[in-house]
Amino acid sequence: MSADQKRIAGEAAAERVEAGMVVGLGTGSTAAWFVKALAARGLSGLRCVPTSEATADLARDLGLTLSTLEDTPRIDLTVDGADEVGPGLALIKGGGAALLREKLVWEASARCIVIADAGKVVKTLGAFPLPVEVVAFGHKTTANRIADVLVDHDITMPARVRTADRGLVRTDGGNLIYDIACKAIEDPARLADDLKLITGVVEHGLFLDLADEAIIGTDSGVEVLAP
Q: What is the SS3 string spanning the chain?
């Protein structure tokens, strides 16, 4: 089952952490298993930088020492989940609406490990909707600019603002999330560049050339993938 696969991936990643490290804590169900396993190890001198308020609450409850990017701008290791793991460890992330903070922590890290269940490994990115974080002010006009970029990438489905029971989903930074049903992303690097050029787009969920290693949970144990 995927829950068991997520757990063993998180536990395996926790074994990579050494005492005294500054550790980036990802967001999502798989990352939560890592946080729990890390706390259970009881390593001394750890400082942890969470990528979301939800992760911060979990880590705090488990007794981990928290820090911030301002106080610890250099991170030794970040461990985080992904919504898709593609060739070369290209990733789609952001299903948990924490992509901006996640990417900030990833890019401050000397090493990044992605953890996932086997079902997240794909041959081509795009089946999972690509999240794009946008400024709330004028977000509908930003969506129009996103649509123009998608046409150039032969992506026909419009970006849709993410909603929940209480209305629009807002990130910890107060931004909105638009999800793009790409189906297949033929050129992730070009799409990533084009999205970042759009006024109003804060960040996108394409994590390219950032993961140093993937630990994948399977029914028979863990599989380690390199870029």
A: CHHHHHHHHHHHHHCCCCCCCEEEECCCHHHHHHHHHHHHHCCCCCEEEECCHHHHHHHHHCCCCECCCCCCCCECEEEEECCEECHHHCEECCCCCCHHHHHHHHHCECCEEEEEEHHHECCCCCCCCEEEEECCCCHHHHHHHHHHHHHHCCCCCCCEECEECCEECECCCCCEEEEECCCCCCCHHHHHHHHHCCCCEEEECEECCCCCEEEEEECCEEEEECC
